[in-house]
Amino acid sequence: MRTTPAINFIGRWLLHASLGIATVMLAACGGGGQLASGGIVGTGISIGSVGAVTAIGSVTVNGVRFTTTTASVSINGSPVPETALKVGMVVTVQGLLFPDGTATAKSVDARTEVKGIVTGVDNAARAFTVLGQRLRTDQLTVFAGGTFDTLLNQYVEVSGFRGAPGDLLATRVEISSTIAPGAPLEVTGTVAAFDPAAKTFAIGAQVVDFSQVGAAFLPSGLANGVVADVHGTMVGAGGRLVASGISVVSTAVPGSENSKVEVEGVVTDFASLASFRVNGQLIDARSATVAGGTAAMLGNGAKVEVEGQLTQGVVSASKIAIDQEAEIELDAKVEAVDATGLTLNGQRFTVTATTQYEDRSVAAVREFSLAAIRVGDRLSVSAARSAAGLVATRIVRLDASAPPDTEAAAKAEGAITDFVSVASFKVVGRKVNAGSARFENGVAGDLRDGRRVEVEGVLAGDVLMATKVAFVADDPTMPLSGSVEGTINDFVSQAKFKVDGQPVDATQARFENGAATDLANGRRVGVVGAVTGGVFVASTVEFKSAPPATTLEVEGAITDFVAVANFKVAGQPVDASTATITGGTVADLGNGRKVAVAGTVTGGVLRATKVEIKDAPQLIEASVKGVITGFVSVSNFTVAARNIDASAAAFENGSAADLANGRNVEVEGTLKGSILVAKKVSFQ
Question: Are the beta carbons of 395 and 424 closer than 8 angstroms?
């Protein structure tokens, strides 16, 4: 376990020593308590903490590691084991903070803000729509069971921080590979347009019909402005969520008067430093110190962490940390690691108490942290640049042979079997859900048993969540032949192992780029063969080469511009002489232009493969998928909460006259301010 956070906690303790000095003295005189560092016995002060889980083991929230051995743990009020807590979940912790920096949780309650089907995706804004809520994502959003690219039409459970009505910053998105009939629907948010006569109200753009909830079961105080949690199992006429249960949710941080409070979330209702809310909790920050920026940066939409005291229901803030978005994303092997950070590609990254950790390697260490990282591990690191250097905001461990994020994590090719629907069929024994897929050489309606396809995507358990399905020429003589590509797991012998969960027998296989002795957990392979009795009998096994040792993405303003082959972004030397330029042209590159650059690092220089010019919004290409809402005219309607102007668009599988609320479309075009000016509209 790292010792660094304890130092930070001691500093915080000293700031609040006036709260606990009496109890510490009593404990030193024989009162009960916990043994503190240096042999001093101390009693903890009460602490209430609301924020996203950044590490497991026990649970770390807002930089404080809470021991959960004796804590009651729940999700949406229902008891669960501690192992149900995941990185990215938003939790409310009540506990005790001790003078030595340790903390013990009495209770941990996680909440899910939205459960339902994704009906729209805005790729440009990295946002999506569920039950009328616009759900934004950032670099710290954790996706489980899929990726942003596999969201459309899938059932999700989302944790996050509420912002403006109908807006949520997602911190964790659980994507289900299957959608069970009657799956629960849930939305939490501020009540508006409350109509007791019509028995309706709105949460964001979602209309709620509570006519099926008896008056005796309606919560007291249900009215405009309160935060309500609505449950149901169906969406009725006009897209209304038919409620089966409603409860009013308190946004106040639990705690006694003068207890220590930490709140993470998005600023709303900003009036002044003396009055704004974070996650619904009223904040007074007139006496607070500001880290990560200036007080002038505080305003609606800012993501912050607040420390302070609870005084008559208001948090009197002593410190506010403004979260900065990561400027650098690096995929490389660890060259050095110590108690305070690590080095990759010659660059030093410092970790903090709020650095997020996740292990996606075969090892799958649950209590993954800096202490579990070793030299030679492959990491994907997101970092922000500060005056002190690079600070890691997120660290993910990957398998050495896993593909870069730009490539599909799993592939399958062969004839379709066991077809039930677009979201449920098999290819060479692999379960496939193509509800979010892009189709080539055909459409979703062409899926059926016997059709031969190539599928790419990511795994959710044993289901391949397809991002692309390409139809290929049928081979009626070998309907079950095909190929799979992925990472070896559950290796027992050459005759018994799995490729991303698919049983494989390679006893008769020919090997390329390796030999049978190279088979091992974590190795990435492509396997050609046929399914027999549920086992993929391999005829060929090809070991895939490892990805480039170092890939890098940086974002920021161009400085030190000499030529397209010689400039800097976020202090990183860049050569963009062979890069693809989007959002503008090579002639637009120059000092002060904001860009995002991706490529590989050689000799300390980022050899760019792609440069996106970010400060020319009218040129940024964008696309959205989903259901049309708010239709006024061909030049004024909405998809996935994005305003669309399709007056100059080309139409596929329909015409402008077919535009109407409820039609499912994909729109491609360019952004002009907040409006997506469509070049093409495809009816789905």
Answer: no
Residue 16: predicted pLDDT: 37
Q: Pull the structure tokens for residue 141.
A: 């959003």
- Cα gap 93→107, rounded to integer Å: 6
Q: What is residue 40's predicted lDDT score, i.e. its pLDDT?
A: 36
What element of type H or E holds 19?
Answer: helix 17-28
In the predicted structure, residue 477 carries a pLDDT above the cut 80 = no
The domains found in the chain, sorted by start residue, are 4-111 (no CATH), 114-248 (2.40.50.320), 260-322 (2.40.50), 328-398 (2.40.50.320), 408-479 (2.40.50.140), 481-546 (2.40.50.140), 556-615 (no CATH), 619-683 (2.40.50.140)
- Per the CB < 8 A criterion, the answer to whether 530 and 481 are in contact is yes
Element (H, E) at 485: strand 481-493
Give the closest residue to 399 by CA, choosing from 371, 367, 377: 377
Q: Are strands 551-563 and 328-337 parallel, antiparallel or unpaired?
A: antiparallel
CA atoms within 13 A on the CB side of 205: 20
* Whole-structure pTM value: 0.80
Distance in angstroms (rounded) separating the CA atoms of residues 609 and 597? 8
Strands (E), 1-148: 34-35, 41-42, 45-56, 59-61, 64-67, 72-75, 78-79, 90-97, 103-111, 114-122, 127-130, 133-136, 142-144
Strands (E) across 312-462 are located at: 314-322, 328-337, 341-344, 347-350, 356-359, 378-386, 389-398, 410-421, 424-427, 430-433, 438-440, 452-460
Interhelix angle 17-28/4-15, rounded to 10 degrees, is 100
Rounded Cα–Cα distance for residues 593 and 612 (Å): 10
Asked whether the beta carbons of 509 and 541 are under 8 A apart, the reply is: yes
Other Cβ atoms within 10 Å of 60 Cβ, number: 24
Residue 448 burial (CB count, 10 A): 9
Q: Which residues pair with 127 in a beta bridge?
A: 122, 136
Query: Dihedral (C-alpha) 280, 286, 289, 295: value to the nearest 10 degrees?
Result: 80
Cα(385)–Cα(398) distance, integer angstroms: 23
**High-pLDDT (> 70) share of the chain, %:** 91
Confidence check: pLDDT of 106 > 90: yes
Q: Is the peptide bond before 58 cis (omega within 30 degrees of 0)?
A: yes
- When mean pLDDT is compared across 64-68, 92-96, 481-485, the lowest value belongs to 481-485
pLDDT for 257-316, tens place per residue?
888 999 999 999 999 999 999 988 999 999 999 988 889 999 999 999 999 999 999 999
- The CA R_g of the chain, rounded to the nearest whole Å, is 27
**Rounded Cα gap, residues 244 and 197, in angstroms:** 18
Paired strand residues for 425? 432
Burial (CB count <10 Å: 0-12, 13-18, 19+), residue 375: exposed
3-state secondary structure (DSSP) of residue 222: coil
**Residue with tokens 């797991």, as numbered in its chain:** 489
Alpha-carbon 370 to chain mean position: 21
DSSP state of 254: P
pLDDT tens-digit readout, 553-597: 888 889 999 999 999 998 889 999 999 998 888 888 999 899 999
Backbone φ, ψ for residue 295 (5° rounding): -60, -30
Evaluate whether 466 touches 496 at the Cβ level (below 8 Å).
no
Q: Are 278 and 304 in contact (CB under 8 A)?
A: yes
> What's the rounded Cα separation, in Å, for the pair 643 and 638?
5
Using DSSP, state whether 618 is helix, strand or coil.
helix
